[in-house]
Amino acid sequence: MTDTLIRAPGCELCDLSALKPVYADSKLSVIIVDDANYPGFCRVIWRDHVREMSDLSREDRLLLNEAVHEVELAVREVMKPAKVNVASLGNVVPHLHWHIIPRYTDDAHFPAPVWAAAVRQTEETHLAARRALLPEFADALADALSSAMRRMNQG
Q1: Please, are residues 23 and 29 in contact by the beta-carbon 8 Å criterion?
Q2: What is the pTM of this model?
Q3: Consecutive 10-residue runs of the chain (155 residues): their mean pLDDT?
Q4: pLDDT score for 112
Q5: CA 22 → CA 10, 71, 92, 96, 108, distances in Å?
Q6: For residue 67, how many C-alpha atoms fall within 13 Å in the half-sphere facing its CB?
Q7: Are 30 and 71 a contacting pair, CB within 8 Å?
Q8: 57-82: string of b/e by CB count within 10 Å (b at 16+)?
């Protein structure tokens, strides 16, 4: 393996310099998406420009799956959603990434996907309470991912 990352011209996920990952290493980055209606929405982004999970080696697939798992656990622990959606679409941006989205029965789209038409407006007090958890969530996420990735790389 080389230290040179595979990049695709014009791919917004190949250049994460404008974003502040809560966790990043040579293989992947995790960001908390700045979405006022979905506090705690995260993306786990594979650093190399690949389209599908099947493009990864077995070792890298396990590493990526562990990162997605750790993000989901942190979302559940800190954000306390009714459900967590985990999705890898890549139809618009064909760069391997996962969405981890805390869902609440009062969110604008529940029970439909967040990309569907909104069916309600979430009360601002509920959103503000969820947004207030973001600093704690970012810390928990960084700690969990650092520990998990260290274990994966040692084992």
Answers
A1: yes
A2: 0.91
A3: 69 78 94 95 94 95 96 98 94 89 97 95 97 97 93 80
A4: 95
A5: 23, 11, 24, 18, 26
A6: 29
A7: yes
A8: eeebeebbebbbebbbbbbeebbebe
